TrEMBL record:
Residues 567-641 form the Tyrosine specific protein phosphatases domain. This is Uncharacterized protein. PROSITE patterns: FN3, TYR_PHOSPHATASE_1, TYR_PHOSPHATASE_2, TYR_PHOSPHATASE_PTP. SMART domains: FN3, PTPc, PTPc_motif. It catalyses: O-phospho-L-tyrosyl-[protein] + H2O = L-tyrosyl-[protein] + phosphate. Residues 72-178, 179-285 form the Fibronectin type-III domain. Residues 964-974 have a biased composition (Basic and acidic residues). Residues 1074-1085 have a biased composition (Acidic residues). SUPFAM superfamilies: (Phosphotyrosine protein) phosphatases II, Fibronectin type III. Residues 24-66, 961-984, 1000-1030, 1045-1096 are annotated as: Disordered. Residues 1059-1070 have a biased composition (Basic residues). It comes from Tigriopus californicus (Marine copepod). The lineage of its organism: Eukaryota, Metazoa, Ecdysozoa, Arthropoda, Crustacea. The keyword RNA-binding does not apply.
Length: 1096
């Protein structure tokens, strides 16, 4: 590719292409800018000349290339450089070591003076590579049209008759600095007799530095400026200078230029554009007004008049003070905001020593996996020891005062009596006139981040009476991002009061008004955009009385516990922290008490910043440091362990979300490095290997016969629980697992095809969990192996508390539907259920985009009943069903965020139902399918979400969707495979961000789907992987993973090799809560009844 680019560039040059020549910086206009001082040389603009390149005349005969000797360029060097050009020189040697042409070469070149013999200069800046041709008799050249203060890598090579020498060793050359921008004059005023006080700001645009300023001044009655030179400090952004001596009683015109010295010639200075001119009047004496005459004798009338004027002035002052106090009680001055004095320098905690006898300071990233494994050893003994040391340190060393927190007026403002706000680090609110001194209190503290003081504010969940104080803190601290890590109620206890409005009507909190503009509900967190207005604000200059605030509300983080898996948390931390603008204030982080989950979030984010900057990690030192600022941060040992596991997961996988434009180069990268990257992804995805205690219910003797495949069974934390029958062991068990979707943690139930003995449990599951949509992917050809599990025609299933009755069947192109009604035996409640038969999906699709047609029709039905989960079943409850759920989730993520995260979805699905992914082909199929969807322009509505909203919008406006804070078991442990993946840019996503356009696209239209039967000799316990998708044109299924053909149809490997999973140590459980569901009315349908199948 690179050689092709080179020859294309040479052909362009040969056909007459030229270089763009630009002039150097223009000096100031002669009529407004004086000449430079005599002790400095003139500012000389650098002018470039056009390089004349003419195409060679046509040749009469070909000269064999092997007869032409090639000169070898050497000793490439820089002669001079300006802002936009560099002059180079070089030497060359001929074969044999001479500097002159050998006889044979002279004869060949003399034989044909039209031989293509010249030197080619190659200069590269970043990703921009350019070429310049020089005739054979030249030993110098000038490159023009370059960027100012930019580094170029330059090489030279010789070309003779289509042959070229290797390039010379490269040299790095930098162009000279450019002109600085305009300073901004902020104040010009009279300072003293014959002196003006000038203040200005440094230009925002400059190279390297601003070395000095020139202040130009002239009276308005003169045409020529005079000037003085004012030196500038390297770090000074604001300048002040007293201009003297001047003549009084004159108007002056002032303007200022910034200057930067050349990096090649200290005597050459580049003077920037002058600031806007400012006019000012200078009095004659001591900046007074008009001259006063001499005082004469004072009459009695004059004395009385003066006394009366003083009395009136005093009364006016008293009235003004009273009015001002009243005004302050009713309005809020921007200039009166409490200013936080941030300490100078940076917080130092990175080298805080560890435990006695342990290595002091931070842990290198390359040693982190081994370090965490040692801490996990012996039932987490290392973590226990470290956390106890932190607890002891907090109790003994932290002697912080908290008098304001304990004040009788403030005790009612604390949610918990033992969670205090230290006085030295607490957030102090502004005090309105007439209020008590204690009105400045809120239970909140500043917390340091990585090399940044007061990066966060840790606070409790607001109480009903402290919502106004909370929003006052948001306003005064210039907060743009709020991170909420609690639900309003947990386990029947109030954890936080609702401090934002439920709808766009808005709520008032004292002088503040808050409106809910948008809300987006996702499976793990909810994103809200709030409009904050100050109703009693006295605006000054360009200050605004309103502000947009983003609230990131994590809904699946249990109290005193940890999330199910670090991956969603890492994604949540990245997106929330990156939403804070550069000029924004601290990020407010709160849970219920503002210490446990709050401290965990802060620790993970700060330690990730340390790793990115230093390649080191010191959780022990950081936690000791921030506990001096707020008590009990990281409240449990389990949270302390989770911090380490989350950091380790970030190092292993990196940030795995892929933008839609990057999907094709990403797939090409993992396919070309299949064994290294795709195989490593599969190993990381399937690293959790469940222990015996993870599957206790599935392995009970009373339940073993209910499992079709003993290797695909539900783990305890994710299994679907049935309502137990009294006295009947195992009556609460069915081989089914919960899987998360894009909007809910319990959006899907994945299960096996019911057997004759478990079909009643299947219908009980639908009844218990209010299921109204079933997707059937298993084959219906072998009714002995996969029997019909529903009632036929007039048949009914009587299941004690409810009955199942068949309603109708409908046949469509590519699928069929069966409708049933589940009726209660105790009351008139009924539940409508539809079974969508898509047997053979996705094996029977001819093109990858056809796989999404099934997803579309399923969602069109299911979205009419949003209160219940969707059941997806295949033969074993394995790969096909998991792929269906994963693609549905990824489509919704793509539609909302214009990005997708295949790795995260696949890993979380494996952790909930181990065994669903068998080979690399299963993972690659999802990548290829999503690539085909993007390329075929079907993104407009592939899978409709709850609201039609444009893609790539950070905050959307959907209809609210109720999402219960469901919990899953957390699996954290060790990965025996060292991955060496760099943080956020590792093997999983370390590819060039380059979009390659697709030349073909799939045509829209319905495709008839054909059922694929199973081989009758196939064992029921056989584990299926997704087969290769055959190329439609070639009809060949390749064994290796090729690059995608036009990014649409790809041949996937049929790799059914089993991979050993790595041990995933986890002794922690959490209860699986059931989602609340609501009743829906029945749909009115035609009652046409038909036979299901001839075999049935």
């Amino acid at each position: 590719m690179r050689s092709r680019r080179l020859w294309l560039s040479l052909a362009w040059l040969t056909l007459g292409g030229g270089l763009t020549i630009t002039a150097g910086p223009m000096p100031l206009e002669a009529d407004s800018t004086p000449p430079p001082p005599p002790d400095e040389p003139d500012l000389v603009p650098q002018l470039a000349t056009q390089a004349e390149v003419s195409p060679p005349p046509p040749r009469d005969e070909e000269i064999p290339p092997d007869k032409a000797a090639l000169p070898v360029p050497t000793q490439l060097r820089l002669l001079s450089a300006t802002q936009e050009s560099v002059r180079l020189a070089w030497q060359f040697t001929w074969p044999g070591g001479g500097s002159s042409e050998p006889n044979e070469a002279s004869r060949v070149l003399a034989h044909d003076d039209r031989a293509n013999h010249y030197f080619l200069i190659i200069y590269v800046h970043g990703d921009d590579e350019k070429f310049h041709r020089v005739q054979r008799d030249q030993r110098e050249c000038e490159l023009t049209g370059l960027k100012t203060h930019s580094l170029y890598e330059i090489r030279v090579k010789a070309l003779v008759g289509g042959r070229s020498t290797p390039p010379s060793p490269p040299i790095n050359v930098s162009t000279d600095v450019g002109q600085p921008g305009q300073p901004v004059i902020t104040n010009v005023s009279c300072y003293d007799t014959g002196a003006l006080s000038l203040e200005w700001e440094r230009p925002s645009d400059f190279d390297k530095s601003v070395d000095y300023y020139r202040v130009f001044y002239r009276p308005t009655d003169q045409a020529v400026f005079e000037h003085v030179t004012v030196p500038s400090g390297t770090k000074e952004t604001s300048m002040r200078y007293h201009l003297r001596p001047l003549v009084g009683r004159k108007h002056y015109v002032i303007k200022i230029c910034a200057a930067t010295r050349s990096i090649y010639n200290p005597n050459r200075t580049w003077l920037g554009e002058a600031s806007k001119e400012v006019r000012v009047y200078l009095p004659e004496s001591q900046c007074l007004g008009p001259e006063h005459g001499q005082a004469g004798e004072l009459s009695i009338g004059m004395v009385l008049g003066a006394v009366g004027a003083l009395v009136l002035l005093a009364l006016a002052c008293v009235c003004y003070v009273i009015w001002k106090r009243h005004l302050k009680s009713a309005y809020y001055e921007i200039d009166d905001l409490p200013r936080v004095v941030v300490p100078m320098g940076e917080p130092q905690w990175e080298n805080e020593p560890g435990l006695e006898g342990a290595k002091p300071g931070s842990i290198l990233v390359e040693n982190l996996e081994e370090h965490v494994a040692l801490l996990h050893a012996d039932s987490d003994f290392g973590f226990t020891k470290e956390y106890e040391e932190i607890q002891t340190f907090s109790a003994q060393e932290t002697q912080a005062c908290h008098l304001q927190c304990s004040h009788p007026d403030n005790k009612c403002k604390n949610r918990y009596l033992n969670i205090v706000a230290y006085d030295h680090s607490r957030v102090v609110l502004s005090q309105a006139s007439g209020q008590r001194k204690t009105s400045d209190y809120i239970n909140a503290n500043y917390i340091d981040g990585y090399r940044k003081y007061n990066a966060y504010i840790g606070t409790q969940g607001p109480l009903e009476d402290t919502c106004e104080a909370f929003w006052r803190m948001v306003w005064e601290q210039n907060v743009f991002v709020i991170v909420m890590i609690t639900n309003l109620s947990e386990r029947g206890r109030r954890k936080c009061d609702m401090y934002w409005p439920k709808d766009d009507a808005g709520c008032s909190y004292g002088p503040f008004e808050v409106h809910l503009e948008h809300e987006k509900v996702m499976s793990n967190y909810t994103l809200r955009k709030l409009k904050l207005r100050h109703l009693k604000l006295r605006k000054k200059k360009c200050a605004s009385g309103e502000r947009d605030v983003l609230q990131f509300h994590y809904t699946s983080w249990p109290d005193h516990g940890v999330p199910a898996h670090p991956l969603p948390v890492l994604s949540f931390i990245k997106k929330s922290s990156e939403s804070n603008p550069p000029d924004g204030g601290p990020i407010i982080v709160h849970c219920s008490a503002g210490v446990g989950r709050t401290g965990t979030y802060i620790a993970i984010h700060a330690l990730l910043e340390q790793i990115r900057d230093q390649g080191q990690f010191n959780a022990f030192g950081f936690l000791k440091h921030i506990r001096k600022q707020r008590n009990h941060l990281v409240q449990t040992e389990e949270q302390y362990i989770f911090i380490h596991d989350a950091i380790l997961e970030a190092l292993r996988s990196g940030f795995t979300e892929i933008k839609s434009i990057d999907i094709t180069p990403y797939i090409e990268d993992i396919v070309q490095n299949e064994e290294m990257k795709l195989q490593k992804q599969l190993q990381l995805i399937t690293s959790f290997e469940p222990a015996e205690f993870h599957c206790t219910s599935a392995h009970k003797s009373c339940n073993v016969s209910k499992n079709r495949d003993s290797e695909i069974v539900p783990i305890e934390s994710a299994r679907v629980v049935l309502a137990p029958k009294p006295g009947l062991e195992g009556s609460d068990y069915i081989n089914a697992s919960w899987l998360h979707g894009y909007h809910r943690l319990k959006e899907f139930i994945i299960t096996q095809h019911p057997t004759e003995d478990t079909k009643h449990e299947f219908w009980r599951m639908l009844w218990d969990h209010n299921v109204q949509t079933i997707v059937l992917l298993s084959s219906m050809e072998d009714l002995t192996e996969f029997p019909i599990f529903w009632p036929i025609l007039d048949e009914e299933f009587d299941l004690e508390t409810f009955r199942v009755r068949f309603i109708e069947k409908a046949t469509h192109e590519g699928h069929s539907t069966l409708d049933f009604v589940l009726s209660s035996c105790q009351d008139d409640y009924e539940l409508t259920v539809r079974v969508i038969l898509c047997s053979g999906w996705p094996h029977n699709v001819k093109q990858l985009t056809e796989a999404f047609e099934v997803l579309t029709l399923v969602q069109e039905w299911h979205l009419e009943y949003q209160n219940g989960p969707m059941v997806v079943l295949d033969a074993m409850g394995g790969t096909e069903a998991a792929t269906f759920c994963a693609l549905t989730t990824l489509c919704q993520q793509l539609e909302t965020e214009d990005a997708l995260d295949v790795y995260q979805v696949a890993k979380l699905y494996h952790d909930n139902r181990p065994g669903v992914w068998k080979s690399k082909a299963d993972i690659l199929f999802m990548y290829k399918a999503m690539e085909a969807l993007i390329a075929s322009s079907h993104i407009a509505n592939p899978v409709s979400s709850t609201v039609n909203s444009p893609a790539a919008v950070a905050i959307l406006s959907p209809e609210p969707v109720e999402s219960a804070p469901d919990h899953d078991t957390h699996h954290d442990g060790e990965d025996a495979i060292p991955t060496n993946i760099a943080l956020g840019n590792g093997d999983l996503n370390g590819i060039s961000r380059h979009l390659r356009s697709h030349s073909d696209s799939l045509a829209n239209g319905s495709v008839k789907m054909t059922r694929v039967g199973s081989d009758s000799s196939e064992s029921s316990s056989r584990r299926h992987s997704l087969p290769p998708v055959n190329d439609v044109e070639s009809g060949l299924a390749l064994e290796a993973c090729p690059k995608p053909a036009n990014g649409i149809v790809a041949s996937l490997p049929n790799d059914t090799q089993h991979h050993n999973h790595h041990h995933h140590h986890d002794n922690r459980h959490r209860n699986s809560s059931e989602e609340d569901v609501e009743d829906d009315e029945d749909d009115e349908r035609n009652s046409e009844t038909a036979a299901l199948t001839a075999s049935a």
